[in-house]
């Protein structure tokens, strides 16, 4: 099975440098989570978690703010004296400190101090009890929320003017200004899709220290709308944007997905199996070995031969007892019917070759005083030929003899006689009995030479003198049904590793199993290649079985620690 894990990568598309390697930036240019979705994956739910750093992680707002001064500067010029300056960073965020460094001149400038005012898009406001801050020192600010800052320079010795009196400002040469704010984002907006994307989340206020934001329901809905259609592969992007530079110290994505398998291991959506008489065929689905199945669905249709199997023994490949046929040694097996049965269409014998090449003939006879009648029934001899490769011993197998025209059997006894014209073969002996069958095996005989009498074979298994088990030559008569009824449906099982589950299609041939029904098929786990999920089809009648509309669902939860990188 190909890998169906989603690849997730985190990319910052801006140019800001984080204060340390423990943070990742986010700003208006975007922090992008790119998902590479493989084929056959459906999304159930997603959750994206971001966390702001503590307030000991700060940013200098001055380099990215819009500067204005009393003499019209947009870039600070230390050589030019100014009486005031303002910084506009365009978004509301808390301020933690300010540092005003004066130009060192000869003679030294008189001592200065700065009068601070803040604004959020409206008029300036002096929010602190002290109306000034010292220069050439880091002055702590009490987390003032603002979008702009105004600094007016006055002499350090100047007293506050009376209420209603205009301020007297002092021309000052300023070397630099450092305005620090906590690095937590001032707001956060999230989009899904290529380009500008589609908005699905907005957090309009500055994040708190160490605050976690979890985008779940809205993200799930947005991703499902953007997910590749029809279980195809594709890419999906989640873009995080902030109107001002901010930092995250954690970005984590959790995805609940479903692997949806709609192809058999052969690579086709439909698979046709050929099953022999009383045989089994297998279709496979490649699945992972360590996750449970929550849904299995497929359609079963069959086209079986119109035949009935009254006896269905399953002998081993090398049975312990058998008739020996060869060198003028023949074997015979009788059958009788309890009632009316359909005509005989074919007969399967369980044979094991003793020589590399075996040829022979099967004839059908009526009963003559408990022995095969000397004249065969008018079906003609049914010939067979076996040719082996490799080295002996070879295993026994079913050999089919099909009549040109079905033979009416009536209710009497009839015989199958096997002889060889070249080589030798073993006809397996079995104790299998089906008391409910309309056709039952009778005595089994053998003889040496065409004119010799038929002799009974040892009738019991060794060591069963107390409860003798009758033995007969292992055969499968294949009868045409008397009534025009369809052959019995195939029996189905699911097998995964060492566990099996019997399943029954509905009247339309649909197998539909949910997680509860599939609970006995626990994941096999272990090492090595994962075992496939197998559909075992057993049928009494030979024919073709068509499996289609496969739908196997396997849940997966993936946690992507996008930052810090895992």
Give the mean pLDDT. Answer: 91
| Biggest sheet features | 7 strands, antiparallel
Number of helices: 1
Distance between the termini: 26 Å
**Which stretches are poorly predicted, pLDDT < 50 over at least 5 residues?**
none
Number of DSSP-assigned strands: 38
Described by the principal axes of the CA atoms, the overall outline is: rod-shaped
Helical fraction: under 10%
- Radius of gyration of CA atoms, rounded to a whole number: 45 Å
Beta-strand residue percentage: over 45%
| Helix/strand/pairing category | mainly beta
Outline the structure in words.
The protein has 566 residues and is mainly β. Helix content is 2%, strand content 51%. The strands form 7 sheets. Strands 4, 14, 17, 18, 20, 36 and 38 form a 7-stranded antiparallel β-sheet that branches. The two termini are 26 Å apart.
Secondary structure elements and pairings:
Layout: E1 7-12, E2 24-26, E3 31-37, E4 41-51, E5 58-60, E6 66-69, E7 84-102, E8 112-119, E9 133-134, E10 138-155, E11 174-182, E12 188-192, E13 198-203, E14 212-215, H1 217-226, E15 234-241, E16 246-248, E17 250-261, E18 271-275, E19 279-285, E20 295-304, E21 322-325, E22 329-337, E23 344-353, E24 357-368, E25 371-376, E26 382-387, E27 397-407, E28 414-422, E29 425-430, E30 439-448, E31 455-456, E32 472-473, E33 475-479, E34 491-496, E35 499-503, E36 510-514, E37 533-539, E38 543-563
